[in-house]
Amino acid sequence: MLNMENNQIVLTQTSLRRSVATAAISLLLLLLAACSGENKTSGGTSEETQIIAIEDRTVAGVSQKGPFLQGSSITVQELDGATLVESGKLYQTGKSFKGKIASDTGTFLIKDISLKSQFALLETEGFYRNEVTGEVSKSQITLNALVDLSERETANINLLTHLEYERVVELVGSGETISSAKKKAESDVFKAFGIEVDNASAEDLDIFAKGDDNAALLAISILMQGNLSEGNLSNRLAVFASDIEKDGSWDDENEKTDIADWASTADLAAIRANIRSWELGEDVPAFEKFFKRFWWNSFKLGECDGETDGLTKKNGNELSKTFGKDYLCSAEDWQLVSASEGSGSNDNGDVGDNASFEYGTLTDSRDTKVYKTVKIGDQVWMAENLNYKAYGSVCYGEDDANCSKYGRLYTWGGAMDSSKTNCGYDGGDGCSDLAALVKAKKNVQGICPAGSHLPSYDEMQTMLTLVGGGNATAEGSATAGTALKAKSGWNSGNGTDTYGFSALPAGRWENGYGGSFENAGEMTGFWSTNFDNYYGHVLHVTSGAKAEYWEAPKQLGYSVRCIVD
What is the pLDDT of residue 513? Predict the structure, then answer.
């Protein structure tokens, strides 16, 4: 996580700033200049690569993630091409020209720029408008663009100019001219998102302008933003740029799937309304078609159009949290079919003894994840494990794929949201308050999404009694365990999933005991609100089919299932 202390996130602390370091730029312009003379070996004509001084130039453009706000800084960094021609070496001169964003549209204009060569680095830093939330960012970010000013006086700064940089440097180092390297790098970024357009130069794109290339830029900007904070966005951009640097291919399937899972539930009408409400451009280009195709392709659904209208397909992405679930092509979009509308299948595609499960959904407003819920008696339980990244939680084996499969493992303090309640595994001032709530049989939200809460012992007992468990004593109940367990996924002793609870063997985290992980495939446990000194109360379900309720050290990591209020 990047340092947020001065309300400033600077992408250049990661590999994106590192790519602008002197050595990388030296390699870039060294190869550019190598094309300019008779004895140089790089490709391209001398007209493409000769060093051209820029005198008294005005450079204008727009700076966008969403648009950067008025007052954000703009810097033009001089790159010394003359030294390259004379000595075969390249240095940044240290000379720069500074300006400010002139309005909330992101426009800028810097006058009287004189450079030793036509190659310059443009950098913008500031707050921006977030397309997903419609709000101004809480922290600043930095974007940049490598430009050739020999034939242009306008140059926009955006995600495409930013993400292409490392790839451009790599291609130039392999003998490409800068013009061909930029064209190829821009195409590589688009193709990473499954987009093929006849794109103009990245510096000419504008998220408020018409045309498929501008719409594609806006789609990428929204997809990369997702539900992330500025710090996490910075990290995502840096990792992506590094990933495509060598071969132009985006190979991080986990990150792609995380974005696709978010995109499949995003409210595109609200996002369009956010952008329109800024009243900063004539219109919003048709980004939706590119946005949708990204997650359609990730889920292996294909196109949803007139030819496939009414067709149902299963999500074929094994990393997705909705893997195996049915999607219906309707109104030119793939829509998740809830099990209550379909066959009553559980998360594993199996049908329980009760084919009329009353399923619903619970949306976590903190990260927009959508969880399936199921009604058991008068209670409405989450039908999958919580996967909210919070203090005191971890993926099994520290593998993100296991979070997608099993949800996260939480210490008891993490489940109780100790960062807010001040009640951790070793106690705390807030524990007496929580104990009073538990004793009074009041709901404790803990780490659960708004509108739900952690189950108490009594609520777990009510559910267990209904599913055939009787009293979940130390001996446990095989009847309840079998009924609660999913029909597949267990190393041994799969269940009947009679009530749609679909318990999977997530294992546990031995936090405080060496930090090891154990028993995935064999058991799972769910925290309740009840506790006693150094022990929290947990419902265990084992491969031997038992469901038993017992005390466990609070520093262990188990799963969380919430109950809708």
Answer: 64
DSSP codes joined into one string, 415-471: HTTHHHH--BTTB-TTHHHHHHHHHTT--B-TTSPTTEEBPPHHHHHHHHHHTT--S
Torsion of CA 305, 310, 316, 321, to 10 degrees: 100
**Largest distance between two CA atoms of the chain:** 89
Of 245, 248, 85, 90, give the one whose Cα is nearest residue 169. 245
Give 152-214 as a DSSP string: -SB--B-HHHHHTHHHHHHHHHTT--HHHHHHHHHHHHHHHTT-------GGG--TTS-SHHH
User: Which of the listed ranges 225-229, 544-548, 553-557 does the model predict with the highest average pLDDT?
Assistant: 225-229
Distances (CA, A) of 525 to 39, 114, 122, 481, 539: 71, 67, 53, 11, 5
Find which of 39-43, 176-180, 397-401 is predicted with most confidence, using mean pLDDT.
397-401
**Does residue 193 register a pLDDT over 90?**
yes
If one counts every other C-beta atom within 10 angstroms of the C-beta of residue 494, the result is 18
CA distances from 410 to 60, 292, 418, 536 (A): 51, 33, 11, 12
Residue pLDDT, tens place only, 302-322: 999 888 888 889 999 999 999
Residue 156 one-letter amino acid: N
Is 89 in a helix, a strand, or coil?
Answer: coil
b/e per residue, 427-436, with b = 16+ CB within 10 A?
A: ebebbeebee
- Contact criterion met (CB below 8 Å) for 242 and 163: no
CA pair distance 77, 22, nearest whole angstrom: 12
Report the Cα–Cα distance between both ends of the chain, in Å, rounded.
Answer: 34
CB atoms inside a 10 Å sphere around CB 443: 17
In terms of Cβ atoms closer than 10 Å to its own Cβ (0-12, 13-18, 19+), residue 457 is middle
How far apart (Å, rounded) are the C-alpha atoms in residues 301 and 287? 19
For the chain, how many residues are written? 565
Note whether 75 and 123 are within 8 A (CB).
Answer: yes
pTM over 0.85: no
CA distances from 191 to 19, 147, 438 (A): 22, 22, 53
Q: Answer yes or no: is pLDDT of 30 > 90.
A: no
CA–CA separation, 485 vs 545, rounded Å? 8
